[in-house]
What we know:
Layout: H1 2-72, E1 76-78, E2 87-89, H2 91-105, E3 112-114, H3 130-142, E4 146-153, E5 156-166, H4 169-177, E6 191-203, H5 214-221, H6 226-269, E7 270-271, E8 276-277, H7 279-291, E9 299-307, H8 310-317, H9 319-337, E10 341-347, E11 350-357, H10 362-376, E12 380-382, E13 385-387, E14 391-399, H11 405-422, E15 427-429, H12 432-453, E16 458-466, E17 472-483, E18 487-489, H13 491-500, H14 504-524, E19 532-535, H15 538-542, H16 544-556, E20 564-568, H17 581-590, E21 594-600, H18 606-612, E22 617-620, H19 622-625, H20 632-647, E23 651-654, H21 660-668, E24 673-674, H22 685-692, H23 699-717
Amino acid sequence: MNTKVGNFLSKRIAILMISIVVAISGALFFTLSYVNSAFERVIAAQTAESYAKILSGTQAFYSKQIVTKAVASGIQLRAGLQDKEGAIPVPATFMHELVDDLNAKYPQYNLRFYSDYPFFERASNSTLDQFEREALGKLRQSGDASISKIEWKDGVARLRYAKAIKMEQSCVDCHNSHIDSPRTDWKLGEVRGAQSLTILLGQVSVWAWDTVNPMVYVVLGSFVSVTIFLAALLYTTHKFHEKKRQNQTTEEKNRQLQLASDQINSLVFVNPVTNLPNRRSFNERVREIAAVPHDNITHCSVILFDLDHFKNVNDSYGHEIGDLYLERIGQRTRSFFGDTGFVSHLSGDEFAVLLTHDERTEFEWGQICEPFIENIIRPIVVNSLQIYPSVSIGVAQCRIGDTELDTLLVNSGLALQNCKQNIRGRYRVYNSELRRMSLRSTRLEEKLRIALKEDVLEVHYQPKVDLNTGQVNGLEALVRWPDSAEGFVPPLEFLQVAEDYGFIHPVSDYIFKRVALDIASWKSNGHKVPNVSINVHSAQLKTPKELYDSLGHFTDNNVVSKDITLEITEGCFMGRGTEHVADILRQLSESGYRISLDDFGTGFASLLHLKFLQVDEIKIDRSFVADVLENHESRTIVEAMIRIADGIGADAVAEGLETSAQVLKLTELGCNSGQGYYFMPALRPQAISALLSSENAFHDKIDRKMMMLVQDTELTAS
């Protein structure tokens, strides 16, 4: 009996012990699995946080160190994802482009930079899924810096992570003032959007670890059989090896994270197109050298250059060819300067070289820049295409320790700008006169904006006269700026300032509006108004919408198109964005506007324009009229221009007539119209009203001309 009881108890104890072992094993199994899952999520969260910190740091540096200084230097910003010449991306666009580059290399992380109020040109990239919408709402409500969530999809667990992007002061200023901003009531610190990424956590088993209390599995483990115990033992062994593999996977993830970090650092310090140091790297190098005097060198300098008409290469052959072209330019530059210069690719087609040396004269700079230009302009073959480079250079130097970085870069930029405005393909060394010119342009820009706002600009009119009858057969509208301090500011100077500072369209629109109002006023007073000529700036033809808006002033004031002549110069056909100018002019001509080719004969392709344009008037430039009496070549050219005008059915108008002898000679050569101080300078609209009341206002001038003709005939006969 005792033996049976002992055996019974032994069996029961054995079963109990086995059950206890199974229960403990089950509890350990499920607990270890839960801990393993939690550990994996911690690694994933750390990975996400690392990415977020790197991206946030990159954005902050770009915004504070690059955009702020670029804006202060007058560089334009672009919000869109498309390139724009001479402009750099705003911080949000920069981050979109950076995230796109990273996703191309590391698609498994699905980096996102998004907002539920996307800027209009980035709206197509801002479709939000459910998690992103919920994350934005929670980040705004809770004020937390980040939020994460585990999602399951098709049996795969994913860590979804989002970090808040808050509005800085520069962001608030930009969005609340931009005409196309989706919101204009942003506040400092408000959540603008979020950075997000997705990390796969591997296959999920049949148990949902985040929804069931782990202690349930301990209870269940107490009732499993010996078979489950053995299975648990085998599973534990399997999990051990799986854990080992997971550790190896974690090491691989850390390695990929380090590679991504290195990639971001590369993007921060290296231009990816040419693999040359970028602007940030260049600025740091300049600070290192320019701030601290050295024993063996006294000066440092910046050679700043860009490629002339680089956009034409991109537009004609594509950006891939353009990038290879830039890469070859970078290689040539680095090869030319070797170890003597720090070569950097700042952005777009702009490069810079930092040199250290003793003070150099402009002649010595010529000995460096001219061979460098010769080296650069050698033809470059890219994918069987032959490209002929042209480069413009600005140079600035300073004594080490005496000049700050920004001043050195600004000075080289001023020299480059002056070089491009005057003669491309050469170099210019900075001097104090360039600074004076820049300061004057800045002051004129400020005063001109005020003058435009306060309606100070005036439009004067110079009559065009029939050289045979003395009748006024036209008026040319000329803008004037009476300044209290300087008198009348030269039009060529302030119009150039308006173009350089990007508000030539408002100035041109002001002129068109004044002309339309003056014509309407003269007609309301009963005057018969002749055809009025108005100068069209080349920028208006590059952006025809603004030109058509300005022409709308004539329609608003009941001025018909046939009463208006649009004067253009050869500059309207030169440079970027002029591909459709001829088509626009043809449309205007078909609409009834007369087209006049101003300064004819002073350009390189005036005759070519006559071939494909319907020209109603050719204006003979004053440079030919001035010496038509003394210079046989000028007289021959003027006569040829008159014959060309007659041959194409256009009127020939001589500009700059100052003497009766010039009027006589032009009439002899067959020219029937002219304008100039001999008849009358440009006058205000009130003075023109009196002129319009006279049918033959300049008949006396023509009579004197006839007297000269009689006198010359008598002298010839004697």
